[in-house]
């Protein structure tokens, strides 16, 4: 056994390199042709039943509007009931023929089963499940006194998607439907102070890649890995290490800093377009894909860059982080942040 492993240690890199040199050109040509066909024959969403979790704000809200504009029937769920009803009303105005809301918390298994059961009772079928619900927690790991208070991140971001998917899977098999898994570029671009959030998104990515293999062609899975998109985080809202909801735009500037923030409506359009074309992965903005290549080929450089941008040169303080200092340069903030974020800053002053 050891002899075989020794042999593979020597030969696998060599054969992999030359194998990829011969395999990649025809493979990418095939994918190019496939993309043309998927664009021409993309799914007609009119009348399709779409269940979206975390639909009261951010990407989930805009996905509701985008699906509605295509004529889809919507089942929307979130914890904030009043805000959810507002989103539902706008979705009706945008063009959805039927919008149904469920007030629920996806971190609770019983709620996830109820969401699916009520959706099926109302519509009789399910075509798309969009696992969007998620929360953000920001804190240095060593500053968290009670680790158990971080469970909410995994319970919502990871287990919430798992619970809902398990409940919906029989109905998605019947309709040959689709699952949208909202992971994040944070699954590989691991910024400090977000260890549990990053871990939850990496777990989500690996879970749905495994599920894709298990399900084969019965249910198509699109994994979404957004970069920095307009959201509650970009407005400075997050959970602290103690589990308290905080609004702090200074820490937002540190965690986002010099990275340009993309429009949430544009992100939603890209996601729905990718799902309709059966894309396996959707990254918005698309340039964020290159960060994965840097992570694979130059992991040390990514680690050094994260320390340089997110941490001060002499410790973990956010006050002297390079990200924050870059934003203090005149004109940089207006160039990197969309108007919605700048307007929010003015209101909070």
What does this structure look like?
It is found in: Membrane; Plastid, Chloroplast. It comes from Raphanus sativus. This is 11-beta-hydroxysteroid dehydrogenase 1A. Its main location: membrane. There is one protein chain. This protein has 13 helices and nine strands. With 349 residues, it is α/β, with parallel strands linked by helices. The strands form two sheets. Strands 3-2-1-4-5-6-9 form a seven-stranded parallel β-sheet, sandwiched between helices. The chain has a two-stranded antiparallel sheet with strand order 7-8. Helix 2 (58-69) packs parallel to helix 3 (81-94). The longest helix is centred in the first third of the chain and has 39 residues, at 2-40. The N and C termini lie far apart (67 Å).
Features:
about 350 residues; alpha/beta; seven-stranded parallel sheet; two-stranded antiparallel ribbon; 13 helices; 9 strands; about 10% strand; globular
Sum this structure up briefly:
The protein is of the alpha/beta class. It is 54% helix and 11% strand.
Give Rg in angstroms. 21 Å
Largest sheet strand order:
3-2-1-4-5-6-9
Give the tally of β-strands: 9
Helix content: 40-55%
N-C termini distance: 67 Å
β-sheet strand percentage? 5-15%
Transmembrane segments: 12-30
Subcellular location: Membrane; Plastid, Chloroplast
GO molecular function: 17-beta-hydroxysteroid dehydrogenase (NADP+) activity
Organism: Raphanus sativus
């Amino acid at each position: 056994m050891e002899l075989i492993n020794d042999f593979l240690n020597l030969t696998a890199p060599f054969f992999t390199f030359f194998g990829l040199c011969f395999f990649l050109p025809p493979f990418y040509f095939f994918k190019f042709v496939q993309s043309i066909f998927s664009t021409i024959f993309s799914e007609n969403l009119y009348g399709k039943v779409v269940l979206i979790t975390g639909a009261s704000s951010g990407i989930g809200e805009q996905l509701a509007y985008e699906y509605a504009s295509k004529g889809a029937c919507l089942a929307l769920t979130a914890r904030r009931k009043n805000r959810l009803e507002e989103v539902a009303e706008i979705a009706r105005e945008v063009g959805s023929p039927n919008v149904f809301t469920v007030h629920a918390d996806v971190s609770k298994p019983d709620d996830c089963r109820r969401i699916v059961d009520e959706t099926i009772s109302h519509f009789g079928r399910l075509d798309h499940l969009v696992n969007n619900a998620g929360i953000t927690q920001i804190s240095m790991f060593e500053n968290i006194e009670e680790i158990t208070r971080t469970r909410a991140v995994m319970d919502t971001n990871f287990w919430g998607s798992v619970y809902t998917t398990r409940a919906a899977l029989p109905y998605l098999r019947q309709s040959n439907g689709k699952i949208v898994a909202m992971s994040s570029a944070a699954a590989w671009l691991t910024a400090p102070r977000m260890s549990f959030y990053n871990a939850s998104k990496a777990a989500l990515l690996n879970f749905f890649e495994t599920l894709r293999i298990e399900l084969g062609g019965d249910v198509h899975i699109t994994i979404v890995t957004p970069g920095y998109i307009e959201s509650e985080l970009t407005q400075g809202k997050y959970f602290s290490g103690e589990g308290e909801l905080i609004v702090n735009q200074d820490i937002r500037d540190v965690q986002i800093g010099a990275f340009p923030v993309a429009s949430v409506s544009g992100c939603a359009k890209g996601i729905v377009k990718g799902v309709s074309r059966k894309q396996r992965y959707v990254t918005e903005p698309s340039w964020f894909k290159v960060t994965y290549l840097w992570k694979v080929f130059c992991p040390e450089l990514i680690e050094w860059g994260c320390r340089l941008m997110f941490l001060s040169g002499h410790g973990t303080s956010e006050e002297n982080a390079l990200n924050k200092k870059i934003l203090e340069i005149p004109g940089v903030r207006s160039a990197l942040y969309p108007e919605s974020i700048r307007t929010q800053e003015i209101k909070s002053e």
